[in-house]
């Protein structure tokens, strides 16, 4: 009789579906979760359990919380927790990953994706757990073209991005691991729920979707008039994109997991048919009421207009994916799951994705502190999200070099943060800099209102909710800059921070 | 003019045309007076530094003087709030604004004040006195408007003398009140003295420390000072 499953990465987009489906399948589940600045591990588990129950319309048993972190020895689990694992668990579903494409100064994505996987394998070995189901990505094929088979592990001639490299290295680790039966799942581009459009992250495909909405200027609401965008893309239009719904990926994994004779192989969890870029543009054009996006060949666009440059800049991070021309072989998948084809990626499905994203504000409100958790999340936002977003903002150039300012925030969740403007970025540290030119003093709700754009910083000041110490003129101008940043930050698609921190 | 009595003002949202745009404003007037004491137009601070009709000083003067019998108009400059017109491309101008505190075309906003005056002339008996009030940057717009509008009084609140040309006030033909916060970061006392001394009579300088340039919590003092000045000089 099947015993329990240890699931990593349940807080990620796919992870929450895996948790739901494992619970629906009656599996006993232990979750490896770490707390973050906004929520304790316990609160995160609560939220995941709520999602599982609500999205399945069932009352499901509560998973067991194992508070830990892939980035620490023994995953941060104490002897009692390890003993519980050895006793209750016989398989691991490893879906935790650091999914941003660019490397960071603290060693990501390697630390989570490679070293974390190594620590997990070591723990399994020490506890006698021999069954591992590993979530990888179809893009461990790097920049290869043509057909990629499921039994191949070849990054191609190029290097791929840091994320792909790290997932490639993790697969190598797993292949080299003796004494375990390992199954590898490689989804392609994962997007929202095929039935509801739900997503918890807005990167990759959603960046294109949102840009299309913005360029069409209609948000999909007014389709009486087609807008001619006159945008040329340096692509042939024949490039293919393989896109799959999150719920199908989860179901497919569960279906293979429940067939032990299928374990030990690698599966491309991909769509049966990739879509050409030309087709995707046509679907979006019909839905959003635009035309005039033309693919003019892959030779580049030396005379790009300002709008075209803006579009290409937005695509920069995904350029290698856009130009990909790869076919993922699915022989193993079809053999294991002949009767579970993925839903078609058609206009009706894209329409559901679009409707959900727009209702959800493209997830942006969730990455700023919400009313519910603004006190708890403020520190995280001020220390991590704000500097990261500012660095990626065009307004970074306007930061006055050398200026030091302080946010002195009173009340639960508050504190003192000092910022130094330097080289187009904000360097932040806790505490009050003695040499600050400007200090803003306020209560937590006032700052939260400004960050949520319920009130401008200047208006909050005039209303007496923010006080200024130091150079008042600089303080007012800086407040203007921050307002502009917050307004603009609500319009561009930043890297999705929830995913970045979904290492579980 | 009899001493002003306090009464609760009526506030109406209005839209009015200038030469180029339709602007939004709030017209306030005393509910229990058939005829107001006169018309007041309040020109707010710089649009990039919180200059809108909801600013504490602008609102304080608009409501406060309406309580004392005046019909007042505060409004949003072009491109601010729901006023029509191009918004300042802040991202584009931010570096320059940080350095100079100016943006191209800002002095054209006098036309918005002129439009506000024309609107007030159309809704308030034009034979009644017209008072122009500027706060901060708005002070610098008053002389250009005053040339054609023939105001009965000018009131400047926290005029940033070092940032604009205030020499045109010397040609004024009406009483001038300057309200200044002694701890204003824009204030240069020697420059203030030179400017004020050169103004034609009648004039008055009212000063006290009033929350730097911003007068938060000092709005009643501004209103009292302005009201007393108008009572004295517009009998």
CATH architecture heading of the largest domain in chain A:
3-Layer(aba) Sandwich
- CATH fold-level label of chain B: Rossmann fold
Strand content of chain A: 15-25%
Question: How many extended strands of chain B?
Answer: 8
- Largest beta-sheet details of chain A: 7 strands, parallel
| Distance, first to last CA of chain A | 28 Å
Supply Rg of chain A: 24 Å
Which ranges of chain B are low-confidence, i.e. pLDDT below 50, for 5 or more consecutive residues?
none
Total beta strands of chain A: 20
Q: Mean pLDDT of chain A, nearest integer?
A: 85
Question: Which protein chains make the most extensive interface, counting residues with beta carbons within 8 Å of the other chain's beta carbons?
Answer: A-B, 22 and 20 residues
Average pLDDT of chain B works out at: 91
Helical amount of chain B: 25-40%
Percent of residues of chain A in helical segments? 25-40%
Describe this structure in words.
The complex is a heterodimer of chains A (504) and B (235). With 504 residues, chain A is of the alpha/beta class. Chain A has 3 domains: 4-187, 3-Layer(aba) Sandwich (Rossmann fold), CATH 3.40.50; 205-241 and 272-325 and 341-361, no CATH class; 368-489, Nonspecific Lipid-transfer Protein, Chain A (2-Layer Sandwich), CATH 3.30.1050. Chain A is built from 18 helices and 20 strands. In chain A, helix 1 (13-24) links the parallel strand 1 (4-8) and strand 2 (29-33). Chain A is globular and about 70 Å long. The longest helix of chain B is centred in the C-terminal third of the chain and has 15 residues, at 219-233. Chain B has 235 residues and is an alpha/beta fold. In chain B, helix 1 (56-67) crosses helix 6 and helix 3 (110-123) runs parallel beside helix 4 (142-149). Chain B has one domain: Alpha/Beta hydrolase fold, catalytic domain (Rossmann fold, 3-Layer(aba) Sandwich), CATH 3.40.50. Chain B has helices spanning 56-67, 90-100, 110-123, 142-149, 189-198, 219-233, and strands at 9-17, 22-30, 39-43, 71-75, 130-135, 153-157, 176-181, 203-208. In chain B, helix 5 (189-198) links the parallel strand 7 and strand 8 (203-208). The model of chain B has no long low-confidence stretch (mean pLDDT 91). At the A-B interface, helix 16 and helix 17 of A face helix 2 of B.
């Amino acid at each position: 009789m099947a015993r329990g499953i240890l699931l990593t990465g349940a807080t990620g987009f796919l992870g929450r579906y895996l948790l739901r489906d494992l619970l629906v399948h009656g599996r006993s589940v232990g979750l490896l979760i770490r707390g973050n600045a906004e929520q304790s591990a316990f609160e995160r588990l609560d939220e995941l359990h709520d999602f599982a129950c609500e999205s399945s319309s069932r009352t499901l048993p509560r998973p067991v919380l194992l508070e830990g972190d892939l980035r620490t020895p023994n995953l941060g689990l104490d002897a009692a927790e390890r003993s519980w694992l050895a006793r209750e668990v016989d398989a691991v579903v490893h879906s935790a990953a650091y999914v941003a494409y660019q490397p960071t100064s603290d060693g990501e994505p390697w630390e989570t994706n490679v070293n974390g996987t190594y620590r997990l394998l070591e723990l399994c070995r020490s506890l006698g757990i021999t069954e591992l189901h590993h979530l990888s990505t179809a893009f461990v094929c790097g920049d290869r073209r043509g057909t990629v088979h499921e039994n191949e592990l070849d990054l191609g001639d190029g290097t791929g991005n840091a994320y792909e490299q790290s997932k490639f290295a993790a697969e190598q680790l797993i292949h080299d691991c003796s004494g375990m039966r390992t199954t590898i799942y490689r989804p392609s581009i994962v997007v929202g729920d095929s039935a509801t459009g739900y997503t918890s992250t807005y990167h990759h495909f959603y960046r294109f979707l949102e840009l299309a909405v913005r360029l069409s200027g209609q948000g999909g609401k007014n389709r009486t008039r087609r807008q001619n965008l006159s945008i040329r893309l340096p692509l042939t239009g024949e490039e293919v994109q393989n896109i799959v719904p999150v719920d199908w990926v989860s179901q497919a994994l569960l279906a293979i997991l429940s067939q032990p004779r299928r374990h030990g192989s690698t599966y491309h969890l991909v769509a049966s048919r990739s879509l050409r870029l030309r087709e995707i543009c046509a679907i979006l054009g019909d839905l959003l009421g635009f035309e005039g996006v033309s693919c003019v060949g892959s030779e580049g666009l030396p005379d790009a207009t300002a709008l075209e440059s803006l579009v290409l800049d937005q695509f920069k991070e995904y350029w290698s994916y856009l130009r990909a021309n790869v076919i993922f072989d699915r022989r193993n998948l079809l053999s294991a799951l002949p009767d579970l084809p993925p839903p078609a990626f058609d206009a009706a499905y894209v329409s559901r994705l679009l409707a959900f994203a727009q209702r959800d504000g493209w997830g942006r409100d969730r990455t700023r502190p919400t009313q519910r958790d603004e006190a708890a999340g403020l520190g995280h936002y001020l220390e991590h999200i704000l500097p990261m977003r500012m660095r990626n903002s065009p307004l970074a150039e306007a930061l006055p070099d050398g200026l030091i300012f302080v946010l002195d925030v009173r009340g639960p969740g508050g504190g003192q943060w000092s910022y130094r403007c330097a080289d187009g970025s904000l360097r932040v540290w806790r505490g009050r800099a003695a040499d600050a030119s400007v200090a803003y003093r306020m209560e937590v709700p006032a700052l939260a209102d400004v960050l949520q754009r319920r009130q401008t910083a200047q208006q909050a000041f005039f209303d007496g909710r923010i006080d200024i110490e130091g150079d008042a003129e600089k303080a007012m101008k800086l407040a203007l800059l921050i307002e502009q940043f917050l307004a603009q930050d609500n319009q561009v698609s930043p890297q999705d921070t929830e995913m970045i921190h979904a290492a579980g | 003019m009899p001493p002003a009595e306090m009464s609760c003002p009526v506030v109406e949202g209005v839209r009015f045309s200038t030469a180029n745009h339709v602007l939004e404003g709030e017209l306030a007037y005393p509910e229990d007076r058939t005829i107001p004491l006169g018309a007041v137009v309040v020109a707010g601070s710089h649009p990039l530094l919180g200059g809108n009709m909801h600013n504490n000083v602008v609102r304080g003067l608009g409501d406060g003087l309406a309580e004392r019998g005046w019909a007042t108009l505060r409004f949003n400059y072009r491109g601010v709030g729901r006023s029509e017109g191009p918004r300042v491309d802040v991202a584009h101008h931010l570096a320059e604004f940080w350095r100079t505190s100016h943006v191209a075309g800002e002095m054209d906003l006098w036309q918005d004040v002129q439009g506000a005056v024309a609107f007030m002339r159309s809704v308030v008996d034009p034979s009644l006195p017209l008072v122009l009030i500027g706060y901060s940057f708005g002070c610098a717009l008053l002389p250009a408007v005053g040339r054609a509008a023939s105001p009965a009084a000018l009131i400047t609140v926290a005029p940033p003398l070092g940032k604009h040309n205030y020499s045109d006030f010397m040609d004024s033909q009406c009483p001038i009140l300057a309200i200044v916060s002694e701890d204003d970061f824009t204030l240069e006392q020697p420059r203030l003295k030179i400017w004020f001394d050169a103004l034609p009579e009648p004039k008055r300088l009212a000063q006290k420390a009033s929350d730097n340039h911003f007068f938060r919590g000092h709005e009643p003092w501004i209103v009292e000072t302005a009201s007393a000045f108008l009572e004295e000089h517009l009998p």
